[in-house]
Design brief:
Elements: H1 3-12, H2 18-21, H3 31-37, E1 49-53, H4 58-71, E2 76-79, E3 91-93, E4 96-97, H5 100-111, H6 122-136, E5 141-145, E6 162-165, H7 173-176, H8 180-187, E7 196-199, H9 203-215, E8 219-222, E9 228-235, E10 238-244, E11 250-256, H10 262-276, E12 297-300, E13 306-309, H11 315-328, E14 334-338, H12 346-353, E15 357-362, H13 373-382, E16 386-389, H14 393-401, E17 407-410, H15 413-427
Parallel strand pairs: 1-5, 1-6, 2-5, 6-7, 7-8, 13-17, 14-15, 14-17, 15-16
Antiparallel strand pairs: 2-3, 3-4, 9-10, 10-11, 12-13
Length: about 425
C-alpha cells in the first residue's frame, strides 16, 4: 500500500477515479475544471506550459522535457500519470516528487471550492493541484500529460503554449472511438487554436491532425518533416545521431543506454523545448536521461539474468518493447509475465510479444478491472506458447524467475509497478 495514498485517503476517497473504474463511455467534461481554475483566490496558471497527448510515449516525452530543463539549469514542473509506486510521483518539480503534506494542502484548497453541478474527479483534483503547485514553485516550464484522449481531458482546460501528440493507435475505443481517425479527432484538441503542435503521428492519424490544425489556425510541426533525428548510429554505450530543429539548428546527439523507442520522444521534447524556452541551452550531447520507472526499466535478477519492467499496454508499444528486446538480446527468447486491464486490445498486444517469447506467466490485476487470466492463457496456448496462470503478481514473479532467458514484466503499469515495489521491498 502507498503510504501517501493512505495519508490522503480522507480527501481522495470520495472522488471518482475513472483510471481504476474504466468506464465504457465518457462521464466527464471540462466544466468542472474551468470552475476550479476560476475559483476565488486561485493562483494564475503556470506559463510557459506544454500539454503532451498521444497513444504511447507520452510519459517518456514528458520525462525528457523535464530532464532537458534540469540539464539546462531551468526549473520544470512535470505532471504525469499513472504512478507506479506512490501517488506523489504524479507531481514533480526539478525531478523531485511533491511532499505529502504539500499535496494535502493543495488538494484541500481545490476541494473547498464552492459550487458546481458535480464534485471533481480524482484526476481533475490532481490536475488543478499540480498547476497550483507549479505556479507556487515558479517553474520555468510546466508539463502536463493527458490522462485520456484530449478533447475532454482535464489538462485541456489549462492554457498552454504548445501541444505534443506523440503517436495515435487504437486504444480506449469504448470512450474515444473505434477507428484511428476517430481517436485522432479526440487527441487533436491537444493542438490549440492559433497555437503550435508537434507530432510523430503518421498516416490517417496525421491527416486528421493536419485538418484540425488548419481548422483552428495552428501550426503543426511533424517529426521527419520540420524536425527529427538522422544519421542514427548505435554504439555499446548508447545512440549517436544528428538532431535537426525547426529553427535551423543541427546538433550532435548522444543518448546513453538508449532504447530505440525513446528517440522519437527525445526529438519531440527537444523541438518543443527549443520553441518554449528559446534562450535556454539544449543539452543533448549527452542528452539527459529521465530515469522513468517501468519504461523499459532494466534490473538484474539474483541469478544475473535481465529483468525488464515496462508498462506497455497497446499493440504498438508492445511491438516497440519486443523490438528492443530483440535488439539487445539477439537470438534469445524471453519469458514474460503479463496482465491486462479490462477493455485493452490484449490479443493484439500478446501477438506482438509472441515474436520474441514463447514462455508466459499470466495473472490478474488488483485495484482495477482486469482481464481474466484464464482467457489470456487460452489465447496464448492456442498460439503454441507455454503458459502458466499465477494467482497474483507476487506468485507470478516467482514463476517468471524459474524461467530461462531475459525476463519481461509488461501489459499494464499496474502490474509493472506492483513488481517494482516487490523488488524494492526485497532489497530493503
Amino acid at each position: 500500500m502507498d503510504p501517501a495514498a493512505e495519508a490522503l485517503a480522507p480527501l481522495l476517497s470520495s472522488l471518482v477515479d475513472y483510471e481504476r473504474l474504466r468506464p465504457d463511455r465518457r462521464l466527464w467534461d471540462l466544466a468542472t475544471m474551468r470552475r476550479l481554475l476560476a475559483r476565488p483566490g486561485a493562483p494564475p496558471r503556470p506559463r510557459p506550459a506544454v500539454q503532451v497527448g498521444g497513444s504511447k510515449g507520452k510519459g517518456t516525452t514528458c520525462g525528457f522535457l523535464g530532464a532537458l530543463a534540469r540539464a539546462a539549469g531551468r526549473r520544470a514542473g512535470v505532471y504525469t500519470s499513472p504512478h507506479t509506486g506512490t501517488l506523489l510521483e504524479r507531481l514533480a518539480v526539478d525531478g523531485r516528487n511533491v511532499e505529502v503534506e504539500t499535496l494535502r494542502r493543495l488538494l484541500a484548497a481545490v476541494l473547498a471550492a464552492p459550487g458546481g453541478e458535480r464534485p471533481p474527479t480524482f484526476f481533475e483534483a490532481m490536475t488543478v493541484a499540480a498547476a497550483d503547485w507549479f505556479t507556487e514553485q515558479a517553474v520555468d516550464l510546466a508539463v502536463f500529460e493527458v490522462g485520456l484522449g484530449g478533447r475532454h481531458d482535464a489538462t485541456t482546460a489549462l492554457p498552454v503554449d504548445a501541444g505534443i501528440v506523440t503517436t495515435i493507435e487504437l486504444e480506449h475505443t469504448d470512450v474515444l472511438g473505434d477507428t484511428v481517425a476517430a481517436i485522432a479527432g479526440e487527441k487533436a484538441f491537444v493542438v490549440r487554436p492559433a497555437g503550435i503542435g508537434f507530432t510523430a503521428a503518421q498516416g490517417e492519424a496525421l491527416t486528421v491532425l493536419r485538418r484540425h490544425a488548419e481548422a483552428v489556425q495552428a501550426r503543426l510541426l511533424v517529426l521527419g518533416e520540420q524536425f527529427g533525428l538522422r544519421d542514427v548510429r548505435w554504439e555499446p554505450q548508447g545512440c549517436r545521431a544528428r538532431l535537426w530543429l525547426p529553427d535551423g539548428r543541427d546538433l550532435s546527439v548522444f543518448l546513453p543506454d538508449a532504447a530505440a523507442f525513446e528517440l522519437p520522444a527525445l526529438a519531440l521534447a527537444a523541438a518543443a523545448f527549443a520553441h518554449l524556452l528559446p534562450a535556454a541551452s539544449l543539452p543533448v550531447d549527452p542528452a539527459p536521461r529521465p530515469g522513468l520507472a517501468c519504461r523499459f526499466e532494466v534490473r538484474r535478477d539474483d541469478d544475473g539474468e535481465v529483468l525488464v519492467l515496462d508498462g506497455a499496454h497497446t499493440e504498438q508499444s508492445l511491438l516497440a518493447v519486443a523490438a528492443e528486446l530483440r535488439r539487445r538480446h539477439p537470438g534469445r527468447r524471453a519469458a514474460v509475465l503479463f496482465a491486462s486491464a479490462a477493455g485493452k486490445r490484449w490479443r493484439e498486444g500478446l501477438s506482438a510479444l509472441l515474436a520474441v517469447a514463447d514462455d508466459f506467466v499470466v495473472t490478474e490485476l488488483s485495484g482495477t478491472a482486469s482481464e481474466a487470466a484464464e482467457a489470456l492463457a487460452a489465447h496464448l496456448r492456442a498460439h503454441g506458447a507455454r503458459c502458466e496462470v499465477a494467482a497474483d503478481a507476487a506468485s507470478g514473479l516467482q514463476a517468471l524467475r524459474r524461467r530461462a532467458g531475459p525476463r519481461l514484466v509488461t501489459g499494464s503499469f499496474y502490474l509493472a509497478g506492483r513488481i517494482r515495489r516487490l523488488l524494492d521491498e526485497a532489497q530493503r
